[in-house]
C-alpha cells in the first residue's frame, strides 16, 4: 500500500500584505517615537482601541459611501454580529468618544498609532495592512483647534528631521467649495460627493482628467468607467478656476477667495482661514510650512470645515539619478458630524493622520531619520564551546555598560562566526580563547575599520599590515570599545 505523501504547505505571503524587515521597522518605530514625543509635549494623551469594531460603526465613514461596509475584512462573532478590522483610527475614536462621552474631559485630546486594514485591490506601494499615527481633539469647536492641529503637524515634520522647504501643509476649507457649488445650484449631496471625489484626484489626473470626472465621467487605462458629477461646461470651468485660485501669501489668497464666494456658505470658510492664518503666524508657522490651497478637498465624506494635506517637497534619487518624488504623506481636517452618528448631537472634532510606513520610507530614502539607525553591535565569538557561560557573561557585561551585544549561539568555526558578524553589520567581534584567558586579555576585531580598509586597499601584504585587530586587558574591554565608538 502506497504511503500517503505528507502535506507541505507552500510558503507564500498573502497578496497585499508585506513582511517588514529590521531596518524598516526601526525607521517606523523611530518616526512614531518622534511624533509621540511631540504629541505628549502638546498635551495629547495616548489611546489604544481594538483592531476589530462592529461593521455598522465603520461603514458610513469608509471613503466610498456608495459601498458601505465594503472594503473591510469582516467576520461574524458568536452573536452573529458583523465585526470588521478597523479601516482607520478615526472611526474607532468616534465610537470611543460616544461610548465614554459623559466621562471624558473635553476637549478630549488623544493620539494613537497602530495597524489598519483595507480590503482593496493591492498594487505597487498599496498594501492591505499598514500603520497609521493620528492626533485629534474631540469637543474642540472653532478654527483655533484646527490651527493648533496644523501647527502640531508642522512640528511633527520637524521632529522627523524635515526642515524649511522640505515640506508644506496645504490648507483649505470645504465650505469654500460648498459656496461655489451653492452658487451653481449643484450642492445636492450626491453631486457634491462626486465633485469632491473628482477634485481629490487633481494631483494624479491633472485638470483634464478632473474635468472629465466633473462632467459625464472618465474611462481609465483598464477600460473601467467612473461616472461623473454631471456639471455642464460653464460649471466645470468655474469649479476648476476656483481650484486654481491659489498662489501667493495666505492673506492674498484669503482676499481672492472672499471675492469668489461672496455671501454664500463659503463665507464661513473665509472667516475660518483668516483666524487660522493669525494663529499660525503667532506660532511662527509661515507660508513655507503652511500654505492655503483651494484645490485641497480630501476625499472622505465626513470632513465639514478646514482640511489639509502634508506634501513632502524634498526629493531623493533613484540609482539612475532620476528624482524620487513622494507627494502627500498625511492630512486631516475638521469632522463635526462623526461622533453625532452615535450620540445624535453634533460633537466638534478635528485631527491629523499620517501613514507611518509611507512616511518612514520617504525619510529613509532622504536619510533624514537618524534615530532609526541601530546602536553598533558587538558579537562575542564562541571560540571554545565549553566556555559558553563565560561568553554569555561577557555579552551581559557589555550590555550592562549600555552597549548592544550578543554571544554567538549558531555553531560553526571561527571563520563562520566572523562572517556572521560581518553580515550583521557588527562594529566589533570579541574573541576569548585559551591564550587570551591565560593572559587575562581579550582580542577584538574592529570590523567597521576592517571594512573601511578593505574598500581602500588592493594589495594583500598591505592589508596584512593593518591593525584592525587589537588586544586589550580583560578589564579594559568596555572602556576601549566605548572610546573607539566615540572616536568614530
From TrEMBL:
List residues binding L-histidine.
88-90, 118, 132, 136, 298, 302-303
An example GO biological process term is: histidyl-tRNA aminoacylation
Q: Keywords in UniProt for this one?
A: Aminoacyl-tRNA synthetase, ATP-binding, Cytoplasm, Ligase, Nucleotide-binding, Protein biosynthesis
Q: Which domain of life is it from?
A: Bacteria
User: What InterPro entries does the database record attribute to this sequence?
Assistant: aa-tRNA-synth_II, aa-tRNA-synth_II/BPL/LPL, Anticodon-bd, Anticodon-bd_dom_sf, His-tRNA-ligase, HisRS-like_core, HisRS/HisZ, HisRS_anticodon
Task: Kindly indicate whether the keyword Ligase belongs to this entry.
Answer: yes
Q: What class of enzyme is it?
A: ligase
Task: Give its localization.
Answer: Cytoplasm
An example molecular function term from Gene Ontology annotations? histidine-tRNA ligase activity
Residue intervals of the Aminoacyl-transfer RNA synthetases class-II family profile domain: 31-374
Record-annotated membrane-spanning stretches: none
Known EC number(s)? Answer: 6.1.1.21
**NCBIfam families in UniProt:** hisS
Q: Oligomeric state and partners?
A: Homodimer.
Please give the name of this protein: Histidine--tRNA ligase
Taxonomic source organism? Marinicauda pacifica
| Gene expressing this chain | hisS
